[in-house]
Amino acid sequence: MANVNVVVPEGLLPVTVSPATTASSPMILYPPPRGGGAPAAASIKKKCNSPIEHAGGWTHVLVESMKASSPTHLKAVAALSTAVPAVEYEIDDNSAWMIQHPSALSKFEQLMIATRGKQIVMFLDYDGTLSPIVDDPDSAFISETMRAAVKEVAKCFPTAVVSGRCRSKVYDFVKLTELYYAGSHGMDIKVPEGTKYNKKKKAVLFQPASEFLPIMNEVHKTLSEKTRTIPGAKVENNTFCVSVHFRCVDEKRWGLLVEQVRAVLKEHPELRVTQGRKVLEIRPSIKWDKGKALEFLLETLGFADCQSVVPVYIGDDRTDEDAFQVLRDRGQGIGILVSEFPKETKASYSLRNPAEVMDFLVRLVEWNRLSGTN
Ligand SMILES: [Mg+2]
């Protein structure tokens, strides 16, 4: 096994947990929601900032984080903020956030003017960006209209889908051969030969975590068996990432689920767990993420040192923050977070949901047609 490292992207919240119970598996928490989920969220933040052992340890912290980021809790906050004048601060919070992260639709013309004469390269997350978040991850289908919109975008600009799903699965959903695909959070990248923008004209397959494949298969098998008795739990093999979905698991059983994940990680300190939208994701602790995938694809397509390239990255998940950070570090590109609610993010702009993503893509194609740049 090669020397592996733990990557904690800037701005995320590393948690110090009891060394007696956790070996060396770190985890990265989803940010607490602003406002309403406040009691639980504030509690987590306080605990995480203090390297002390707290009651319940690892499992307790992760379960509280899962609760704090639960859409159920977030929806309750939203409902309160529209129904009860006493919580107007929620609306103020949202307004402040929208000023910091304005809608990419409302700023569309300004954005396009800034890209004039430059090469746009599109990066699109899949779940929650091109498809709705649904209870069954196997049913997260892309709509025909969204597929058509992405197809049109790909005629205008190099376009990649960067997903936590395994590459073959995300391709089976999208079914567009003209795109580039980076699965398993960027750990499985394929650039087919002979595409319009592949200047090296050579097929590229890049799998920086390939040595972890047997371990990931073992972890998938073990966790599938261990969680069989937890109703609603679904363990998905995403090649270089094992995803444990808890969207359909009763909240009372989240602790049990996390205990099972923890038990597996104790056996594999070379892995780490991160939390996404109703999913825990176990991945190799290598210095590779969606941000690295973005850089790799830019380089492969011949845009690495190009000053006139504008990478546009659209995503909804905590794992997309690595890509948003890369755009900030490069000082170029447009990061767009897809979210119905204010969230801590490195993205500069926002869209509320996949329907708005589609609107943005359609307008992008129309703008490109009218400007006659391609
Ligand atoms: Mg997503």
From TrEMBL:
Q: Which organism is it from?
A: Zingiber officinale
UniProt record similarity statement = Belongs to the trehalose phosphatase family.
What is catalysed by this protein?
alpha,alpha-trehalose 6-phosphate + H2O = alpha,alpha-trehalose + phosphate
The cofactors named for this UniProt entry are: a divalent metal cation
GO BP term (any one)? trehalose biosynthetic process
Q: What is this protein called?
A: Trehalose 6-phosphate phosphatase
> Which InterPro entries is this protein grouped with?
HAD-SF_hydro_IIB, OTSB-like, Trehalose_PPase
Pathway(s) per entry: Glycan biosynthesis; trehalose biosynthesis
